[in-house]
Amino acid sequence: MKETSVLTATVLGALVGGVAGYLLFTERGKAIRRELEPALEDFVREVSGFRSSVQRIAGIATEGWNAFNSASGRMGEMRH
Asked: How many domains is the chain built from?
């Protein structure tokens, strides 16, 4: 099992290294990078916007939960 993991890691490392070398050191690789950069920048912008939305939703949910806990605490005090 361990030998399989080592072999898999070696093959993946060689593959990633080969792709990186191609993209960094060949003319066609440089052209591909120039074509991909705008799409990657758009993707990063979208992920950042999504992250911001999730943070806002989490804040709203927390406020709602706090309000619920506060209201239910007051209801418990009224019963006693």
From this structure: 1
